[in-house]
Each structure stands twice: as structure tokens, then as C-alpha cells.
């Protein structure tokens, strides 16, 4: 059963076609003119339109042109008693499926309509198949079967079906852009553009030009009009990576775009309407920035309608073997090699804290594949930072800022773990006393022990403390 709309200024024709296609088990609506038809289609789209060409207020060709602006795939069959080559050519140019001249044989019209609906069905099935292939490929790139990742998968599938803005948070290297692409691929906008931009990579003026475009002569070097990413991604998705790096001025301009759904190119006097879904991402704590005055509160609530938080790799260590296997296959395919990995090397990879998350793991495996000369990746092919890592060791230089800078989030996590380990040492592995020392509840302490993967060390510390007590006695 299809949803049909009959458009004709003659009541008798509307009644006849409504009866004919109603008996064929189609749902039929009727409109007496083009204006009424456009209003009905905006409220509820149709699968196929059967329209007269010559009507008083709006011709069928004008109706077809208007329909194509918001229903590009709807099937259309045109009817006319005054057929001309020019009219037929214009109709087919605008995407009409077929053309029939009045008076016509009803069975011939029914056959034309069924063929048009069949073409529409095949088009929809083909697009659905291609979309399913893209979805499968995109989600296959987000690897992990741990509980935190299962929650991420579920959230991606949920938010893809709606049009709300999404804020993806997580440390650097956790795969925020990959998740954004997955949301776009699973959404109804999948056939439209996905436009990513790193907001921290541009100055304020350049970022404005990239996002909103500019007019010729707007500034030195603007020799022609240029679309911005918002306009270029109309009906699609724009991905604003590192949105927390936006200047206060750009935050105001982005907020206006989100509120008004219009952009004004640099140097332009008129605004341009845009239907673009916004997905933003950051590795910064925007809520803390709001409290400190570094990020607008109204913009924060606009972009964080639906939040997705990506877990760091250290909180989903059970995914490391699968990730390692994936990256080994990836780089072996590129080099034409076939490699495995030794148990010791994999053990070291699972133990390491991965401050750079999945991106750091990928680079580590790429290095190992390039350096390894045997058929199994050995620990010697891993970086010293991985092989020398000791989860129980406290870094004495915790408060020294290296010249090259550091990953502050990962470093603070390291400091947090260091204080927890020191508290456990002082208390001989007693979690209750260690929690009291750190002014935490026992439950909170255990959560942090699991977070850092060091809960099993408490038993070792208790054993060591008991051993020292026995020797002293």
C-alpha cells in the first residue's frame, strides 16, 4: 500500500482517481490545486503524486518544482489534455516519472503508477542497502565489547534517530570523531555531507570564515564568494571538534546560528537559512569552564542536549586484545606481512596506562609492526614507556612541567593514583584506613582502585605488611 496524492482542479477527476486507487489498496488524498497540495505534502509526505499540468493558481510544473525542494525522491506522474514537447521536457527535467495525456485509459494510468512505485521501492531498497553497508563498516571501526563501549554503541544508535545536538566528551585519542561519523551514518542525514572542523586549529577570524563563509571583497584575498561549512553541510552534519577552544566572540556567533538556524557570511548583508545538525566534541570539562567564565552557559546547554562520554582506554582494558589484533591486521595488510603477538608483549600492553588512549595504542602497534623481525611481536619492539611501566610506582617528578608540555587529564589521573598508592602503603593495604586518610568513602576508594586497575595491589600490600610484621616479631 502506497500513500498517493491526487491533484486536479476538476472534482470529477479527483473522485474518479480516488476511487480507482482506493480499490487498489492505496491510501489516497486529494487536493484541488497546487497551493493546497504543497501544504498537505509539508504536513505529511506522499510516496507518489498524480497531478494535472494545467490548473488555475499553479501549474503542475510549478507544483513539481516546489515539491522537489523538500521531497526529492517522491514519484510524480503528470496528466494533461494539452501536451506539448516543451511541457513534457520540462516535467522530465524536474524528475517526473511519467506523462499521460487526457483522456486516458484508467488501466494504462494504473500501470504507469505501479511502475513508478516499483522504481521508488527499488531506489529506497538500494539506498537502505548502501546505508546498512556504511553503518556496518562505520560501527566495525569502533572496537570494543566491554560494558562501557556497549553503552556507547547503544547511545549512538539512540541519538542517530533524532535531530538534537550532541556533545561528545572524552580524553584525546578516545575516538570522538569516529563516534560523530557513526552518529551521522546511522541518521536520516547519512546521504548528505559530514563536515568536520577542528575549532582549535584556526584563529578567530579564520574560524568564522570557515564556518560561515565569506563574500568577495570581504577582506584581502577574498577574490570570490565562498560557502562556509554550515552552508556546505546543509541537510547534513557539521562536527565541531575541540569546541571548548572557541573564543568568546565565536561562541556568541555559534549560539546565534543554533538559535536562528541561519548564518551570515563575512561581508554579507543577508542571512542564509541552513538545516545542519551540530555534533560537538571536546576533551575539556565544559561545565567547569562555564563556572570559571571560560565558556558560555547558554551555548553549553545548546550543544549538550544529548551528551556522549567516551571512556579512556585504561577503563576498558578488556578491549585491548581486540584492539591490538585489529591494528596488527591493519598495518600487516599495508605492509604485506603476517604477524602475531607474544603473550609477554600483550601483557605489557594490557598493563600500560595509555594516557594517549586508542590513538597511542594504534601508533604503538604501527611502530611494533615496522620494527619486528620475527613472526611474533616481542616486547623488545614496544616503546620503553610501555615496557618500563610500573603501575605501583610513584613518579617523583609529578609536579614538573616538561618543556614539551603534557596531557593534563592523564597526568592528573596519574597523580590521583599516586596518592591512592601512597595511602595504601601507609596503611598496609587497609582500604578502610586508606579511605579515611584520603577523606573518601570506602566505596569511592574502591571505584578509584578499579578505575586505575590497582585493586589487586591491596592484597599484595597487606601481604607485604604482614610479612614485615612477622620478621620483626
Outline of this structure?
The chain is an alpha/beta fold. The protein has helices at residues 11-23, 34-43, 60-68, 85-93, 106-140, 147-160, 176-186, 204-212, 229-232, 248-260, 286-292, 297-303, 320-335, 343-351, 357-371, 384-387, 408-426, 431-437, 442-452, 457-472; strands at 3-7, 27-31, 48-52, 75-80, 98-101, 166-169, 194-198, 213-214, 226-227, 237-241, 262-263, 272-273, 277-282, 306-309, 340-341, 376-377.
What does this structure look like?
It is built from 20 helices and 16 strands. It is an alpha/beta fold and 473 residues long. It has 4 domains: 3-124, 3-Layer(aba) Sandwich (Rossmann fold); 141-311, Rossmann fold, CATH 3.40.50; 314-387, Helicase, Ruva Protein, domain 3, CATH 1.10.8; 408-472, Arc Repressor Mutant, subunit A, CATH 1.10.10. The protein has a 5-stranded parallel beta sheet, sandwiched between helices. Helix 3 links the parallel strand 3 (48-52) and strand 4 (75-80). The longest helix has 35 residues, at 106-140.
Question: What tags apply to this protein structure?
Answer:
single chain; 473 residues; alpha/beta; Rossmann fold; Helicase, Ruva Protein, domain 3; 13% strand
Radius of gyration: 31 Å
Shape type: elongated
Main sheet attributes: strand count, strand direction, barrel closure: 5 strands, parallel
In CATH, the homologous superfamily of the largest domain goes by the name P-loop containing nucleotide triphosphate hydrolases
Report the portion of residues in β strands. 5-15%
Poorly predicted ranges (pLDDT <50, ≥5 residues)?
134-138
Strand order of the largest sheet: 2-1-3-4-5
Number of helices: 20
Q: Span from first to last CA? A: 89 Å
The amount of helix comes to 40-55%
**Broad structural category:** alpha/beta
For the record, the CATH architecture of the largest domain stands as 3-Layer(aba) Sandwich
Number of β-strand runs: 16
Amino acid at each position: 500500500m502506497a500513500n498517493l496524492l491526487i491533484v486536479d482542479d476538476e472534482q470529477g477527476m479527483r473522485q474518479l482517481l480516488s476511487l480507482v486507487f482506493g480499490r487498489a489498496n492505496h491510501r489516497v488524498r486529494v487536493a484541488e490545486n497546487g497551493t493546497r497540495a504543497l501544504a498537505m505534502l509539508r504536513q505529511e509526505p506522499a510516496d507518489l503524486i498524480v497531478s494535472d499540468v494545467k490548473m488555475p493558481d499553479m501549474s503542475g510544473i510549478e507544483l513539481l518544482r516546489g515539491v522537489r525542494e523538500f521531497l526529492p525522491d517522491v514519484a510524480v506522474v503528470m496528466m494533461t489534455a494539452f501536451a506539448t514537447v516543451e511541457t513534457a521536457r520540462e516535467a522530465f527535467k524536474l524528475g517526473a516519472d511519467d506523462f499521460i495525456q487526457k483522456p486516458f485509459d484508467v488501466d494504462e494510468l494504473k500501470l504507469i503508477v505501479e511502475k513508478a512505485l516499483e522504481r521508488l521501492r527499488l531506489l529506497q531498497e538500494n539506498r537502505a542497502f548502501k546505508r546498512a553497508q556504511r553503518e556496518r563498516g562505520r560501527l566495525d571501526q569502533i572496537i570494543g565489547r566491554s560494558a562501557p563501549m556497549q553503552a556507547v554503541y547503544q547511545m549512538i544508535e539512540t541519538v542517530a534517530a533524532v535531530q538534537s545536538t550532541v556533545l561528545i566528551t572524552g580524553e584525546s585519542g578516545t575516538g570522538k570523531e569516529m563516534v560523530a561519523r557513526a552518529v551521522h551514518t546511522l541518521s536520516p542525514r547519512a546521504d548528505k555531507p559530514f563536515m568536520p572542523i577542528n575549532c582549535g586549529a584556526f584563529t578567530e577570524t579564520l574560524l568564522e570564515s570557515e564556518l560561515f563563509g565569506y563574500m568577495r571583497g570581504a577582506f584581502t584575498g577574498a577574490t570570490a564568494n565562498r560557502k562556509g561549512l554550515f552552508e556546505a553541510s546543509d541537510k547534513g552534519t557539521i562536527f565541531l571538534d575541540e569546541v571548548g577552544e572557541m573564543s568568546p566572540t565565536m561562541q556568541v556567533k555559534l549560539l546565534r546560528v543554533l538559535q536562528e538556524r541561519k548564518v551570515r557570511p563575512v561581508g554579507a548583508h543577508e542571512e542564509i537559512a541552513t538545516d545542519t545538525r551540530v555534533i560537538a566534541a571536546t576533551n575539556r570539562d565544559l561545565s567547569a569552564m562555564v563556572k570559571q567564565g571560560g565558556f558560555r552557559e547558554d551555548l553549553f546547554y545548546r550543544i549538550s542536549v544529548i551528551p556522549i562520554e567516551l571512556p579512556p582506554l585504561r577503563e576498558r582494558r578488556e578491549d585491548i586484545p581486540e584492539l591490538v589484533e585489529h591494528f596488527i591486521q591493519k598495518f600487516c595488510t599495508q605492509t604485506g606481512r603476517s604477524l602475531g603477538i607474544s603473550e609477554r608483549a600483550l601483557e605489557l600492553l594490557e598493563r600500560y596506562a595509555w594516557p594517549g588512549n586508542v590513538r597511542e595504542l594504534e601508533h604503538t602497534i604501527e611502530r611494533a609492526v615496522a620494527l619486528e623481525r620475527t613472526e611474533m611481536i616481542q616486547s623488545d619492539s614496544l616503546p620503553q614507556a610501555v615496557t618500563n611501566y610500573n603501575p605501583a610506582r610513584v613518579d617523583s617528578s609529578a609536579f614538573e612541567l616538561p618543556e614539551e608540555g603534557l596531557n593534563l587529564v592523564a597526568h592528573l589521573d596519574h597523580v590521583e593514583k599516586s596518592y591512592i598508592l601512597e595511602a595504601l602503603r601507609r596503611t598496609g593495604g587497609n582500604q578502610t584506613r586508606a579511605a579515611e586518610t584520603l577523606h573518601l568513602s570506602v566505596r569511592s576508594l574502591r571505584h578509584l582502585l578499579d578505575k586505575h586497575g590497582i585493586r589487586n595491589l591491596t592484597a599484595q600490600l597487606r601481604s607485604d605488611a604482614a610479612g614485615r610484621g612477622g620478621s620483626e616479631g
